[in-house]
Amino acid sequence: MQTSKIWYYSELIKISNRECDLLAKIVTQSDIAALMYSSGTTGMSKGVILTHKNFIANSLMMMADQDRYGDPKNVFFCFLPMFHIYGLSVITDHLLAASEREHGGFDGQVVSGAVPLGRDVMEECAKVIPHADIFQGYGMTEACGIISLGNPKEEPRLSSSTGTLVSGVESQIASTDTLQPLPPNQLGEIWLRGPNINAR
């Protein structure tokens, strides 16, 4: 039985015995990194061009609170599609099993996105994982994922809010008729600006 081994990209290139016909290219932050498709909630699904800069900004925004609070660096690596039950269940199972072995219980964070997480679901989750911070965020494909995120250190426990804007994102609510900014508590369209927002 073969033991598992991590193969680095450089090792795969060495053992492939094939030379690449592609020319070497210097990649800049403004180069396209991914073409993602939106969910189509307002009509047909649209292709969203995201750059390397969008992904770099998104990563920094997600980790900003760690620096702010002096938290130790957390690393989370996932290569499975988290939007699919397979990815979600495998990652969740492994995280919970590892935490149970190492700490005697899960005391980390449970973060929800993609759909609103109701307070009733949060309360049920808290019964099962009582020491975990349970919160949610709001995002969209055009924002490379993140727009706002709950903050369990500053918000009431089990707040059903999607939190405040992440560092670097600006927002205003505008009238869909006049395209002018609206005062608080008015229905309108969300306008966003930030380094994580797609430019095309």
From TrEMBL:
Domain AMP-dependent synthetase/ligase: 25-90, 109-197
Keyword rRNA-binding: no
Keyword field: Ligase
Gene Ontology molecular function: CoA-ligase activity
InterPro entries per the UniProt record, alphabetical: AMP-binding_CS (IPR020845), AMP-dep_synth/lig_dom (IPR000873)
PANTHER family in the record: 4-COUMARATE--COA LIGASE, LONG-CHAIN-FATTY-ACID--COA LIGASE
Record-given protein name: AMP-dependent synthetase/ligase domain-containing protein
